[in-house]
């Protein structure tokens, strides 16, 4: 009997499990699954089959052989809202071999290399913002709470209380799963919320985020609402970020934290070790290259910028810069123990994003890249010429620009791996270019409004 089967059969018996959901994600981070009864444990353990081309960008054509979902027994957990159902996260195999187009495998390879070559692990915490919406009598999407109309709704106690039953349900489910939910709040946009859980090793956090998004959507539906992590669902409201708090560890030691470390030098006064600053330097240097990974859809580039929504500030970075407790920066260092990468948004696939950020940061570590002096200005207020004079570059303006930056980049090619046919990063760049072209070819109402009678 395989170790995987032994673990899953024991857990299923202990928890009275009747069905397994064998789950994986595509390039877009969309959860895909099959529901398999425990009586078909052979299918669970030997792998449920999927038609790869039907899933999405997974490197297959209709002629491709089945993708087999290989379960990671250590990822097992019970579905919080339905007895008798367990979820297990899976890696994809094709004809018995790990399928290199699988985002979870890409991150797993990067983390294994980090451990074997450097004796380190990547720790990540995420701040996943989302909107709760509904459809009005005309079918238009609107904020679910009709009383949530304040110009400055952030941290509004009344808005939080009106959503108490929903938010507390999510919180209880998270804690039941061991996520350690520590805060729930109304965010800067009408209808926007954030529910935080404790940081963990990168693969654990990525798995948890995928399920958290699925759980939020499912529970919202049961409350008669629709949830979205879309980066910019409304042009006049703040968008949804996925702030990535990251650090490198060796054993129980945080290698970014100067306090208590063997290093007594603080290069820029923010409490980081030299390794932490170098990692930050690498992230900044490669930010525009990995933007197609961290900000992977057309809508992502409507979130970034300096134009303010109704609440007065976008809260999304427009420029590649870092600083202390300054939320206009791409990288914020509020405490000397981690980097808060604020450019990542709600559409990001965490497996690919964590792998890309790790590669960028390690390149900075290897090259001892100095991020320069922290920026102290409000970058939303500076004229673009003044920003350029400081040597600070803007983020890509569109997905097309970002995909062109990604195409052929050697660091990202190495970071995301070769599929045997092509570099995954180049494959992703092509998918994203096609995505932009498809969107750009559509004619919408705003074009007709502005151009119908222009000439």
How would you describe this protein?
- The protein is of the alpha+beta class.
- It folds into 2 domains: 97 residues, Glutamine synthetase, N-terminal domain (Ubiquitin-like (UB roll), Roll), CATH 3.10.20.70; 339 residues, Glutamine synthetase/guanido kinase, catalytic domain (Creatine Kinase, Chain A, domain 2), CATH 3.30.590.
- 36% of the residues lie in helices and 20% in strands.
- It contains 16 helices and 20 strands.
- β18 and β19 form a beta hairpin.
- α13 packs antiparallel against α15.
- The model has no long low-confidence stretch (mean pLDDT 95).
Feature tags:
single chain, 455 residues, alpha+beta, Ubiquitin-like (UB roll), Creatine Kinase, Chain A, domain 2, 2 domains, eleven-stranded mixed sheet, seven-stranded mixed sheet, 16 helices, 20 strands, 20% strand
Structural class: alpha+beta
What is the fold-level CATH name, i.e. the topology of the largest domain?
Answer: Creatine Kinase, Chain A, domain 2
Task: Quote the beta fraction.
Answer: 15-25%
**CATH hierarchy class name of the largest domain:** Alpha Beta
Strand count, sense and barrel status of the largest sheet are: 11 strands, mixed
Number of domains: 2
| CATH fourth-tier homologous superfamily of the largest domain | Glutamine synthetase/guanido kinase, catalytic domain
Report the mean per-residue pLDDT as an integer. Answer: 95
Helix content bin: 25-40%
Intertermini distance: 75 Å
- CATH-derived architecture of the largest domain: 2-Layer Sandwich
């Amino acid at each position: 009997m395989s170790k995987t089967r032994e673990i899953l059969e024991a857990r299923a018996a202990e928890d009275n499990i009747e069905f397994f959901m064998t789950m994986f994600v595509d390039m877009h981070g969309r959860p895909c699954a099959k529901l398999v009864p425990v009586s078909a444990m052979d299918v669970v353990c030997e792998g449920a089959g999927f038609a790869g081309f039907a899933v999405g960008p997974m490197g297959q054509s209709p002629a491709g052989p089945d993708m087999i979902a290989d379960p990671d027994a250590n990822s097992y957990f019970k579905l919080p809202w339905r007895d008798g159902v367990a979820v297990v996260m899976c890696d994809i195999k094709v004809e018995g071999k790990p399928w290199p187009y699988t985002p979870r495998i890409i991150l797993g390879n990067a983390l294994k290399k980090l451990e074997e070559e450097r004796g380190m692990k990547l720790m990540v915490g995420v701040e996943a913002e989302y909107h709760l919406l509904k459809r009005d009598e005309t079918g238009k999407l609107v904020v679910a709470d009709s009383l949530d109309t304040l110009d400055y709704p952030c941290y509004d106690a009344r808005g939080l209380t009106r959503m108490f039953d929903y938010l507390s349900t999510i919180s209880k489910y998270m804690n039941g799963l061991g996520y350690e939910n520590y805060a729930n709040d109304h965010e800067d946009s009408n209808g926007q919320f954030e529910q935080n859980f404790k940081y963990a090793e990168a693969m654990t956090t990525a798995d948890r985020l995928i399920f958290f998004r699925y759980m939020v959507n499912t529970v919202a539906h049961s409350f008669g609402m629709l949830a979205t992590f879309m980066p910019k669902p409304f042009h006049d409201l703040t968008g949804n970020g996925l702030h990535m708090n990251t650090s490198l560890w060796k054993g129980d030691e945080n290698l970014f934290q100067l306090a208590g470390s063997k290093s007594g030098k603080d290069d820029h006064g923010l409490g980081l070790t030299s390794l932490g600053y170098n990692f930050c330097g690498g992230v900044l240097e490669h930010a525009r290259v990995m933007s197609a990974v961290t900000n992977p859809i057309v809508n992502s580039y409507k979130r970034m910028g300096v134009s303010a929504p109704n609440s007065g500030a976008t809260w999304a970075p427009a420029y590649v810069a870092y600083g202390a407790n300054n939320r206009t920066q791409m990288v914020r260092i509020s405490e000397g123990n981690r980097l808060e990468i604020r450019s990542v948004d709600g559409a990001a696939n965490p497996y690919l994003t964590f792998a890309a950020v790790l590669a960028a940061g390690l390149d900075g570590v290897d090259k001892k890249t100095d991020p320069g002096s922290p920026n102290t200005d409000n970058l939303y207020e500076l004229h673009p010429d003044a920003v350029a004079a400081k040597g600070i570059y803007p983020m890509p303006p569109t997905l097309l620009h970002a995909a062109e930056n990604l195409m052929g980049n050697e660091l990202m090619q190495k970071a995301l791996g070769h599929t045997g046919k092509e570099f995954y990063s180049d494959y992703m760049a092509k998918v994203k270019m096609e995505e932009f072209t498809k969107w750009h070819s559509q004619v919408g109402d705003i074009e007709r409004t502005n151009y119908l009678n222009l000439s």
